[in-house]
């Protein structure tokens, strides 16, 4: 795409791969301006009474809060593999979720599924983010990006 446009190129990466970071690296090497992740996870549900798939085409995309921990891990893996910005998504319903994605390496976040339950969820997320920044003495939200503390935990003995 980079060869045919000057517009921003931001591919959305699938989580249905063994190593999402390798796809982020390939996107970066091909000239992507950023990557967004993750899309829905391939899933299936079966009606136990009829013993038939609940979806007519058998498989569908799983999204929402159930995928958040996996999506956060994938953002962190990509953050450690590329230099381009990452837009994180997958189960964000409140400010804590958005902050978790940022700490893992997201430069920005996207909220999808939560919009169906609350079309004004962004107002609540922004208010919660402002509150977090104030409580933690953080003046610039971008300073949170990739700031997960991965040092070993100290054992506490009673």
Description:
The chain has helices spanning 20-29, 68-79, 95-104, 114-117, 121-135; strands spanning 12-13, 35-37, 41-44, 46-47, 52-53, 59-62, 86-89, 108-110. Helix 1 (20-29) packs across helix 2 (68-79), helix 2 (68-79) packs parallel to helix 3 (95-104) and helix 3 (95-104) crosses helix 5. The protein has 158 residues and is α/β, with parallel strands linked by helices. The chain has one domain: TIM Barrel.
Features:
single chain, 158 residues, alpha/beta, TIM Barrel, four-stranded parallel sheet, two-stranded antiparallel sheet
Q: How is the secondary structure organized here?
A:
Layout: E1 12-13, H1 20-29, E2 35-37, E3 41-44, E4 46-47, E5 52-53, E6 59-62, H2 68-79, E7 86-89, H3 95-104, E8 108-110, H4 114-117, H5 121-135
Parallel strand pairs: 1-2, 2-7, 7-8
Antiparallel strand pairs: 3-6, 4-5
Helix pairs in contact: 1-2, 2-3, 3-5
Helix proportion: 25-40%
CATH class: Alpha Beta
Number of strands: 8
What is the terminal-to-terminal distance?
59 Å
Report on the biggest sheet.
4 strands, parallel
- The CATH superfamily is identified as Aldolase class I
**What is the CATH architecture descriptor?**
Alpha-Beta Barrel
Average predicted local confidence, pLDDT: 93
Summarize the structure.
This protein has 158 residues and is α/β, with parallel strands linked by helices.
């Amino acid at each position: 795409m980079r060869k045919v446009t000057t517009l921003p190129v931001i591919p959305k990466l699938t989580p249905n791969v063994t190593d999402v970071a390798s796809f982020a690296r390939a996107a970066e090497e091909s000239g992507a301006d950023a990557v967004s992740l993750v899309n829905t996870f391939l899933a299936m549900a079966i009606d136990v009474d009829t013993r038939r798939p609940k979806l007519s085409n058998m498989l569908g995309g799983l999204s929402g809060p159930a995928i958040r921990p996996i999506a956060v891990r994938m953002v962190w893996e990509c953050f450690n593999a590329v230099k381009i910005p990452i837009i994180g998504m997958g189960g964000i319903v409140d400010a804590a979720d958005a902050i978790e994605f940022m700490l893992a390496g997201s430069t920005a976040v996207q909220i999808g599924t939560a919009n169906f339950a609350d079309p004004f969820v962004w107002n609540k997320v922004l208010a919660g983010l402002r509150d977090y920044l104030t409580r933690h003495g953080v003046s610039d939200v971008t300073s949170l990006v990739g700031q997960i503390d991965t040092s070993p935990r100290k054992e506490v003995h009673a």
